[in-house]
Amino acid sequence: MARLPFSQQVRQAREDAIVDAVNRLLAGKGFDLMTMDEVAGEVGIAKASLYKHFDSKEALAAAAMKRLLGRAEVELDRIAARDGLDALGRLKAVVHWTMTVQLAGEMPSLPSQNSSLRAALMADMDYMTLLMGVSERLSSWILAAQADGALSPKVPPEVVLYTLFARACDPVLAVLKAGGHPDDQVIDWVMATTFDGLSAR
Amino acid sequence: MARLPFSQQVRQAREDAIVDAVNRLLAGKGFDLMTMDEVAGEVGIAKASLYKHFDSKEALAAAAMKRLLGRAEVELDRIAARDGLDALGRLKAVVHWTMTVQLAGEMPSLPSQNSSLRAALMADMDYMTLLMGVSERLSSWILAAQADGALSPKVPPEVVLYTLFARACDPVLAVLKAGGHPDDQVIDWVMATTFDGLSAR
DNA sequence: GTCTATATGAAGATAGAC
DNA sequence: GTCTATCTTCATATAGAC
After folding, report:
1. Which of A181, B56, B128, B148 is deepest in the core (most CB within 10 A)?
2. CA of B193: which chain A residue's CA is closest?
């Protein structure tokens, strides 16, 4: 590992702090309601300084999403390395992790319909590469689970994938948590509805 | 039925047109990205005229939501009047209807985290009354379906209710539709994931 | 790179004539 | 009630000194 020059380490640390704040704000109020003033305030620097590190508000959100996807990769590695987990078990572990992240207030939820943001993300090659990487690893587990007969044959892999992504930012979690239920309980319930469905088995 | 004075009929028609436009815009881009200029433009009147009918942007959104809830009541009546539907069948019919509305581009989705809007809605007694009315009717069907043994005993009624509401604005629908799949197919898939779950039965 | 101060533009809401 | 024109606020982004 080559050591970076000290000045670059400082810069990196500052940018991490910025992305931390962005991540928190995105999780708490979403992209549209997050303001650059708030970000600067949380980090404790001037708003203009933000723009020395990131070109735009969209770039900030992209940075948070890229970090999240990077962490997802790490988590996928960890899950893949676990013993005694079949494909379905791995998918459940992934969903469990995303729900834990969300309940911890660390899931940057990008309200799904913002054109400027969507355009910026789709034009960001690093982001797209990370997203596809995660999607493909999940897809391979989905296919394996279907081959095992563990996943419903009625639902195509594509639909399973989107459903897993959707559960990662499911607003039901926040509502139940606000209702006073402990995190573990909330996760158990939503895991049950996701994998077993509402109907009795 | 007492006839309203002509002038009031005109006013009513105009307000319906306004709420139509708001409903469409809320479904298409959400509350935060909808602007009063757009609403006025869609209706074909001046922005200032909007404010002669509705006090604020929040009031516009509330009007759209109230009309939706009113329509939901009508739909619940219709479903309740159908022959040969047990409680679970009724719940499925409700979800089917909400998904149809969403795919038709008529589901005003209020991004779940907007404090000014949430506050306005919670302070709107008419809205709250309608919301509670719908919630209670759904809850009674949920309880009945659970008594039938048709719903999973692992999931409390409260969780079922929130899940049904969440499916009404599930972004997965739009993604699948954008993927080129016909509406019926999309609905079948999401109905299957909602009630039967992702795991094989 | 960090700051203060400011440019620029967008959007909610209003004034006042008709 | 409808319009045009305007007010006000606020948020993204930038200028320019240090």
Report:
1. A181
2. A197
| CA dist list (Å): A146 to A17, A135, A143, A173, B90 | 41, 16, 5, 27, 30
Q: If you ran DSSP here, which 8-state letter would residue A149 be given?
A: T
Sequence-distant (≥ 6) Cβ neighbours of residue B178 within 8 angstroms = none
CB B159, CB A176: distance < 8 Å: yes
Residue B2 pLDDT class (50, 70, 90 cuts): low
Position B31, amino acid: F
Assigned token pair, A117: 């943001």
How far is B10 from B43, CA to CA, in rounded Å?
14
3-state SS, residue B34: coil
For B20-60, how does the pLDDT look when each residue is reduced to its tens digit (9 = 90+)? 999 999 999 999 999 999 999 999 999 999 999 999 999 99
Whose tokens are 């969780």? That residue is: B159
Rounded to an integer, the average pLDDT of A56-66 is 98
B155–A contact, CB cutoff 8 A: yes
Chain B residues 9-68 with a CB less than 8 Å from chain A: 28-30, 32-33
**Would the CB atoms of A193 and B197 count as touching at under 8 Å?**
yes
The whole-angstrom separation of Cα B123 and Cα B139 is: 23
Non-local (6+) Cβ contacts of B92 within 8 A are: B191, B195
The closest of A115, A113, A38 to B111, measured between CA atoms, is A113
The pLDDT score that the predictor gives to residue B198 is 98
Taking CA atoms, A99 is separated from A93, A95, A96, A105, B193, in Å, by 10, 6, 5, 10, 18
Q: Which chain B residue shows the shortest CA-CA distance from A150? A: B200
Residues A155/A159/A163/A166 CA torsion (nearest 10 deg) = -160
Is residue B111 predicted with pLDDT exceeding 90? no
Q: What domains appear along chain B, each with residue ranges and CATH number? A: 6-196 (1.10.357.10)
Place of tokens 């309740």: B80
Q: If we measure between CA atoms, which residue out of B91, B83, B105 comes closest to residue B134? A: B91
Using DSSP, state whether B198 is helix, strand or coil: coil
Closest CA to A127 of A190, A75, A64, A182: A64
HSE, CB side, 13 Å, CA atoms: give it for residue A124. Answer: 21
Give this prediction's pTM. 0.97
B194 touches chain A (CB under 8 A): yes
